[in-house]
Fold:
Amino acid sequence: MAVCGSGSIKVTDLVVLRSVGRTRSLHTWSATAALRPAFRGTMSSTVLRWFSTLSLSVNQLGRLPWLLDSLPSLPAPQGTVEASEVPSLFREPYILSGYRPVGQDWGCYFLSLFQRHNELLNVWTHLLTVPLVLLRSWAFAGAQGLTLGPTCLPLLFYVLSALTYLSFSTAAHLLQSHSELAHYSLFFLDYVGVGVYQYGCALAHYFYGSEVEWRETVVGALYLPGAALFAWLSCAGCCFAKLRYRRPYPLWRKVCQLVPTGLAYMLVISPVAHRLAIGSWNEPTLTLHALQVVFFLLAAVFFSCPLPERLFPGCCDIVGHAHQVFHILLSLCTLCQQEALLKDFLVQQHTMLQVHGEVQLLLACASFPVLVFCCAVTAGAMRSSMQRQLRLKQE
Ligand SMILES: [Zn+2]
Structure:
């Protein structure tokens, strides 16, 4: 046993250290330490602890190849293919290549997060927005010392709704190529996220972002039940259009998708539009609200028109097609909206209960899980219907 100062190195440690070529540096350290008795006690115990940890790590590293061998091997995603090699359901207009083959293991689609394919940026654009929304909410709640109470509930539901649409969209784009049923099921889930997000926005806009003059109008009086109805109609309309129409899609498909979502947006944004119409755009909060409107309208344009891939078919397969631009603009819309609503919350939080009444606030918030349930049941029913159709097709 080699003794040095008040600490000691076990023989096993020295064997391990020698095995990684560290014995000489240990001797050098021992000689140096001997020349400084004042520091010897504390330094030796610290360094010995470090060496001890190192020897443990080296021992574990030595066992690593055996551990890696015993782990199940990861699935390897197949290379991407041309549009003609996947069923028409999975093809996108003017996107000619970069498709993941259908029918691989689920693990291959999870690992395609790191593979080059035409859905990659659709996945990452929404996936990366999730931690941004989460961390901003976390930092705000910490800085303001927020505790969960009635005044925070619309903000909480807004954040949950944003995280819901972002994560459901990520899952849909990442995993949809697994099978026809997975494709339909995951996009029905994506549409649940759309409806839930619309109603989360409506609650936050109404309680934090509306003026009393607007709330006294007919639109203001019918706003929350109307927003809940249109949010459900958006989810149901998008699911129905997906279930009903096959490629090449007729115009009615876009009508079923865009009319309820467009009407829902016009209603949901109306308290903000009213403030923008009567307020001064120099206020930072109104500038952020103006930005969320601009980003959403631009996002709607790219959702409706397959630009630029229509002009340059095959050139935007991996990077630059309209759905990716739509995702980026929608993420920017959400980030600006969140920032604006956090500022609105700081202004409104102390007077909310007097202005709206606690019962109305709690009733409105109770309608949020009801809306989530209705959207989930609708999507579930559409999935069952599609499952029956696919089973009949196979028979
Ligand atoms: Zn998408």
Remarks:
- The two ends are 77 Å apart (CA to CA).
